[in-house]
Write a structure and sequence with these properties.
Number of domains of chain A: 3
Low-confidence stretches of chain A: none
CATH class of the largest domain in chain A: Alpha Beta
Structural class of chain A: alpha/beta
Oligomer: homodimer
Largest sheet of chain A: 8 strands, parallel
Strand content of chain A: 25-35%
Largest interface: A-B, 30 and 30 residues
Mean pLDDT of chain A: 97
Number of helices of chain A: 9
CATH superfamily of the largest domain in chain A: Glycosidases
Helix content of chain A: 10-25%
Distance between the termini of chain A: 60 Å
Chain lengths: 510, 510
């Protein structure tokens, strides 16, 4: 077995990769197997490798400790051994994001992580130019998570060809598609000829490029591994083909510390898949991802049972027209896991009700979710001549909401403890988050009130007679934070009688 | 028995009143009884009279037919007989409002009545000047119903003395009341000395003046007979005292065609009253009001059981912070009676969440309710130096919502049939009302769509291949109605991508 590539060092939570030469005849994707075992005094990790085309096989590993490692590669075509050393991570590498304190998140190194996500389903499958533009936009934004697909997308505003396909083969002639007839092509449309046993490594290499670029920006890649917006048949493969796909995805992407697994977008629209199938994919992840990346499954109508042990957090699409973030309290109680609102409608003006809320309403939903201890997500769907919509294609943002998320992020980062929980003494006409520690117990020294669409001209507060609090009034829409002094006992805070106000109250000696 | 007053004629649905002299010694309110029986070939009505002070007793009657009537007055102090004739009603007098076609309303003469109400709890107990101002404001408004109280009101922003009290006696010194301590005085506070068996007729005469002035404006008087915002003990009287009060109210006000009975505001805050009490008041109304005026009971937390036979329609205070009008469909199904939303929060900026929504949100709730076949109500609570808030005191309106109700009223009046019902084929991201006839069957020729906070840039419609529809786009906030042409089969309507848009679609030959 000839080793083509094997560095001498890697950084902790970085990628150590070995590339070897192997057979290219027959179907290497199905006929060959390769895996690696990586050992240090602190861990032994077994991880599958994958065929990357042109007779090259790769095995990737993400070390979780510094110091000396040895490795052993085993395959159907030979073996190899070696060693390397792992250095301290670079300052911006905090490791994998994990759940923390039941309802929240933190990086492996303990740094808290408050997800504020966006969705650009196939930004990764656009032109180089648009991808660069999207990365630039993300860099300037407050987003620290992005949801996107491995498979290309077929849907209204998404009728063109992707930059590449995940499999060898040829697609149908998409020039026959119109806004009126595209629904007739959903699923496995005539004229598509793909070999679901032969991957196109270039497609996956490109996605790795995108994941890496996100890593540089400190953004988590919430990878949507399956989805129903399909005309090429990728949503209707057999169990065996799906398994081959999942194993390939897991072997290629697991070593990237910023990857999350989203089993599907709108899993319940994949009509050929059963609960048994989803459980099987969940099993595959637990089997072939040795790092236990965050794992979720996103609904259209009914929630998947987020209590399942392989699901790390709720990935929620709202189920109602008039309430979304307001239900965070309920979902926390029901699933007892972090609540990530990956779809609470998008800011925009397209014809669909899920894609035409105002910037004000989007920001309101963000604060409603955050103050209740949930983690809101964004998307944008503004009509334009070129039909380049952030929600699918990335590019630039046109909306009013994104610039307001910086303030929310700053305020969230001031939270003591693990993150916010809905305060049980909240009055009916306000929302209030209080910090909770890792034991799901409230930290009684900090209150973040939010008044949503209500417009009080003042509010009265009382916590106890002794504690001195410093108070700030936050205009979440106009992005103004005003010092409202220090107070004790019963006190009144004057407010401007406008919508979207928050009041932050914290112990002066906090 | 000496008759002081008895006209020769009355108009149909007007008031025929007889005044007689009687004893003024002892307690005429409890010791004397008087009633009248009014006969025409078409009806015989027995109705109680009342003592109006200064030795004068009155019996009032509202005739429902034209032509000759005879009457007989019976009392504990003598009898009298006479006759009079009833003329056609004046053009603006359409009679009592009744329920119509399960979920709607119409006047006795068949004219449809679409309630658009407001609430000014004690506008009637303010100065002459302010009352005149309120009447002028109402005249210029789209409101055709107003909720107000017989008893004075004790509450935040309502700590002063009313212009008069319903009983003989002396109130406590109200100068001790402050915004901070007023809650300690709720109920029967020390220092109030009223005789709950001796009415102050002037108080009631003045309310009759207010009812009459409303009549001239074509506005229904939704009289709140009991309420919990009290320091004088009127909310904590005995069963016997309550009965005396109800009989007096019914004897005085029943003959006014524009009166509705609201048993209470927030009945469930009258903690001393039981369901048995409320059922008793309902029984008294059915016994002493021969005209069967509309009767309802308004909640704070839990709804009263609006299915009770003496309740003609649901008088609803929303039970949730985030949904109000959106639940009309549910309430229609649950109670199978007209749904009047008497409290969906007020436009304003006071400290309470029920009194600080925006004009936009108020207008949105109005349209949401109306398109679902419910009838929304308004209130206004803007802070001001003099603490004159429309919600309690009347005066002038400061809000942005009231001027927008004229358009809603105009559009509602274009509805064929009895009124609107939620269309069962409505898509999830729209609301659509279709007219229903008196048999609760849809009239398939008219659709009123509403897009609420959503901002579609266009919407596609399809009803059938044959029918030609004329379409109008309604900007409910900017009060602009735009002709969008005639259409058949599948068609698309362009919209401005703004919030609060409605689309009216009707058969061209309707």
């Amino acid at each position: 077995m000839r080793i083509i590539k094997s560095e001498q060092t890697a950084e902790k939570w970085g990628i150590f990769e070995i590339a070897v030469e192997g057979p290219s005849g027959g179907n290497p994707f199905t006929e060959q197997e390769i895996s690696g075992t990586f050992c240090s005094p602190f861990e032994t990790v077994h991880t599958p490798g994958f065929y990357d085309g042109n007779g090259v096989y790769r095995v990737r590993f993400m070390p979780s400790f510094t110091g000396k490692y040895t490795y052993k590669i085993e395959s159907t075509f030979g073996e190899a051994e070696g060693e390397f050393s792992v250095t301290e991570p670079s300052p911006e590498n905090h490791g994998i994001v994990r759940t923390s304190g039941t309802f929240h998140f933190a990086y492996e190194d303990g740094t808290r992580y408050f997800p504020l996500g966006t969705t650009c389903y196939v930004w990764d499958l656009q032109s180089d130019e648009r991808i660069a533009q999207t990365l630039q936009t993300l860099k300037e934004s407050a987003f620290n998570k992005i949801r996107f697909c491995v498979f290309p997308k077929h849907y209204d505003y998404n009728l063109g060809e992707p930059r590449s396909y995940p499999y060898e083969g040829t697609p149908m002639d998409s020039s026959v598609l119109t806004k009126e007839n595209f629904v007739q092509y959903v699923g496995r449309a005539e004229g598509n000829h793909f070999d679901y046993t032969r991957f196109n490594p270039e497609h996956f290499r490109h996605i790795e490029y995108c994941i890496t670029e996100l890593q540089k920006l400190g953004i988590e890649a919430d990878l949507i591994v399956m989805h129903p917006y399909d005309r090429w048949g990728f949503s209707c493969m057999t169990r065996e083909q799906d398994t081959l796909y999942w194993k390939y995805v897991l072997a290629r992407f697991s070593a990237f510390h910023n990857v999350w697994w989203s089993l599907a977008n709108e899993y319940d629209l994949l009509t050929e898949k059963t609960t048994e199938d989803w459980e099987w994919y969940g099993h595959l992840i637990r089997h072939y991802d040795p790092y236990r990346h965050l794992t979720s499954i996103h609904n259209c109508h009914a929630f998947y049972d987020h209590r399942r042990p392989w699901i790390t957090h709720c990935s929620i699409q709202r189920q109602e027209t008039y309430r979304s973030s307001e239900l965070v309290n309920e979902w926390r109680e029901r699933f007892f896991k972090p609540v990530v609102l990956d779809e609470i409608a998008y800011e925009g003006n397209i014809q669909y009700g899920w894609g035409n809320i105002s910037g004000e309403e989007m920001v309101r939903r963000f604060w409603e979710a955050a103050v209740r201890g949930g983690y809101p997500g964004h998307g944008e769907t503004y009509m334009n001549e070129n039909e380049v919509l952030w929600w699918s294609h990335g590019g630039v943002l046109h909306g009013e909401s994104p610039k307001r998320f910086h303030l929310l992020k700053d305020i969230l980062e001031e939270t003591p403890g693990c993150g916010l929980a809905p305060w049980e003494n909240t009055r009916w006409d306000e929302v209030c988050g209080v910090p909770e520690n890792e034991f799901h117990k409230p930290v009684k020294s900090y209150y973040l009130f939010y008044y949503s669409f209500m417009r009080p001209s003042f509010r009265d507060y009382y916590f106890d007679d002794e504690t001195e609090f410093s108070v700030r009034v936050i205009d979440t829409w106009n992005m103004e934070v005003t010092d409202a002094g220090t107070h004790k006992g019963r006190f009144r805070i004057e407010l401007p009688g406008r919508q979207y106000m928050a009041v932050q109250i914290r112990k002066t000696d906090l």
